[in-house]
Amino acid sequence: MSAIRLLVLGAVRQHGRAHGYQVRNDLEYWGAHEWSNAKPGSIYHALKQMAKQGLLHAHEIAPSTAGGPPRTEYEITGRGDEEFFRLLREALTSYDQRMDVKSAAIGFIVDLPRAEAVALLKERVRRIEEWRRAVTAHYVPEDGPEQLGHIGEIMNLWIHTADGEAEWTAGLIARIEGGAYTFAGEGEPFVGVLEDGQENPYATGERHPGDSR
Q1: If DSSP codes are grouped into helix, strand and coil, which group holds residue 58?
Q2: pLDDT tens across 16-52, in order?
Q3: ∠98-45-72 over CA atoms, to 5°?
Q4: Which helix (H) or strand (E) holds 59?
């Protein structure tokens, strides 16, 4: 899975309607340009492609009286909403997802009902444990990586990473079950988007031709 589809769909969905520069600004505010492929060119390309695929609806907005080129505002469609939740659920349960996909999923986890979020995360832990059992049928961590030569360090890294992720996920489950955060249907959730005119302290400042469209 590409993180950019989940990130862009989720960002548009949070606004209701948003032009490309708003989406880019939000993703930079979240630091997504540092931990994912959410670079300006990728964002604008994803918006256009998903509009062609019927996941987003493109609204042509006339220029303001102050002048300047017209902008396109994007709105998520019913199909886009279905795709967003499909990607979100897959990213939350699949242990083998890349870090950028996992990070994007955590950023949108509150778009789900609390009980479903917990169930998906518990499924993630189950899959991690299942993967660990399969790996340790051939590699015993307690015997040390040397049993497989220096290549054993790769297995050692995988096992430690899996154990750390299982522990972190269990902690997140406990926090959510304890009442942390506001999930779908519980009231007004926290939305990490910038207000109109609010300066983005994390913006790259890099100009892109798509910023004016």
Answers
A1: strand
A2: 888 888 898 888 888 888 888 888 888 999 999 999 9
A3: 130
A4: strand 56-61
Compute the 3-state secondary structure of the chain and give helix, strand, coil in percent, each to the nearest 5.
60, 10, 30
Euclidean distance between CA atoms 28 and 10, whole angstroms = 14
Mean pLDDT by 10 residues, the chain (213 residues): 89 90 87 83 92 94 60 93 96 86 93 97 96 83 75 83 94 97 88 64 58 54
Q: Which amino acid is at 188?
A: E
User: Please, are residues 93 and 126 in contact by the beta-carbon 8 Å criterion?
Assistant: no
Nearest to 106 by CA among 21, 36, 195: 36
Token pair, residue 86, equals 């499909």
> What predicted TM-score, i.e. pTM, was given to this entire model?
0.82
User: Token pair of 136, please?
Assistant: 């340790």
What single DSSP character describes residue 16? S
Count of C-beta atoms within a 10 Å radius of residue 72: 17
Q: Return the exposure string of 160-169: e unless at least 16 CB atoms fall within 10 Å of the residue's CB, then b.
A: eebeebbeeb
Contact in structure between 56 and 74 (CB atoms under 8 Å):
yes
